[in-house]
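RECORD TYPE: inverse folding
INPUT: structure tokens
STRUCTURE:
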């Protein structure tokens, strides 16, 4: 398949710039794979589609304030740093702007949101084929301890903010209510719709809520730049499946109960583990490069709750595969659903509305 097969038209005004006033008041487009019907609902109506015994699987990774500002120690030129992955304490891979000026050996002095100097600085120690820079931070025992004070939430580029002060709401809202281990540089956005009260209502219904961890990297949202999907090299992300979740999921599958993934990241964890263990879900940690696209056959996940995704993104390709497992026509079904969402003025992308595929 070609990457261009996953293009679609989206009016710019439908890209959500801010979250809804209340997390669970977003809309919900329900897609039934059998019959390919759609229904327009509100997110709390999710309860009507759940059954006692269902397992709702969430990604509990916490987004870090990964965007930093700095100045070239020699010239005073400004840099924007987006942390991507921690190799060890004070050793990070990062994306930098302007990248061409961040040569190996360049020292960058970190500054506050107001532009004031700090005691922290970074030195570029290496570059890679993607143009990312490896940075060694100095001036503190661990950069992580200073991210809350110096960093900004790494909002995607299609969300615009006029100033640092305008980012204040994003500290809470670009984060799920159940986020725990820090490590993501982008939010697992399907989970942004849940409130503590809605989660409690789901439990009261008799459904199980369990978690896995996948630290979301920038590549999750990046468009596929190759002409064909077979040429694309998937980004690598770290995951962990705890023993309790592995047992709950395994028992559900053995008893014929549904596993519902909240988000493409949760789905990729389960399918990665199952693919490596002959269909079994086993506790442990690892790294995955799993690229799910039509005609992928799924091992574990029975239903998917997700947001609306960018054109040519691996997320849109995954959703298309889920719409018709093992077949190729899921792309057409999803693009028809997206066209319906555009006609009905749904809100798209990270702060936008949700889709439930059953």
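DESIGNED SEQUENCE:
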């Amino acid at each position: 398949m070609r990457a261009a097969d996953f293009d679609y038209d989206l009016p710019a005004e439908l890209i959500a710039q801010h979250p809804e006033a209340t997390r669970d008041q977003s809309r919900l487009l329900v897609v039934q794979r059998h019959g390919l019907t759609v229904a327009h609902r509100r997110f709390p109506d999710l309860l009507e589609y759940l059954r006692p015994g269902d397992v709702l699987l969430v990604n509990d990774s916490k987004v870090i304030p990964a965007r930093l500002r700095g100045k070239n120690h020699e010239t005073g030129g400004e840099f924007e740093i987006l942390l991507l992955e921690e190799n060890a304490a004070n050793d990070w891979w990062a994306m930098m702007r302007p990248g061409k000026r961040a040569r190996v050996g360049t020292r960058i002095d970190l500054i506050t949101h107001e532009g004031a100097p700090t005691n922290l600085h970074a030195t570029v120690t290496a570059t890679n084929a993607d143009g990312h820079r490896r940075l060694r931070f100095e001036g503190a025992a661990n950069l992580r301890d200073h991210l809350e004070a110096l960093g900004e939430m790494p909002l995607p580029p299609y969300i615009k903010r006029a100033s640092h002060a305008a980012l204040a709401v994003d500290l809470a809202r670009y984060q799920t209510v159940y986020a725990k281990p820090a490590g993501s540089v982008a939010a697992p956005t399907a989970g942004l719709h849940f409130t503590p009260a809605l989660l409690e209502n789901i439990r009261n219904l008799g459904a199980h809520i369990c978690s896995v961890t996948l630290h979301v990297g920038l590549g999750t949202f990046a468009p596929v730049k190759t002409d064909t999907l077979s040429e694309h090299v998937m980004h690598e992300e770290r995951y962990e499946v705890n023993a309790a979740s592995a047992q709950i999921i395994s028992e559900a599958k053995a008893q014929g109960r549904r596993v519902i993934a909240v988000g493409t990241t949760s789905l990729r964890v389960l399918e990665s583990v199952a693919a490596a263990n002959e269909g079994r879900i086993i506790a442990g940690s690892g790294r995955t490069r799993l690229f799910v696209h039509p005609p992928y056959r799924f091992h574990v996940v029975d239903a998917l709750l997700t947001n609306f995704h960018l054109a040519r993104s691996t997320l849109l390709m995954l959703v298309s595969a889920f719409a018709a497992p093992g077949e190729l026509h899921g792309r057409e079904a999803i693009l028809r659903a997206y066209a319906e969402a555009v006609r009905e003025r749904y809100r798209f992308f990270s702060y936008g509305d949700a889709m439930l595929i059953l």
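NOTES: The first helix runs from residue 147 to 150.
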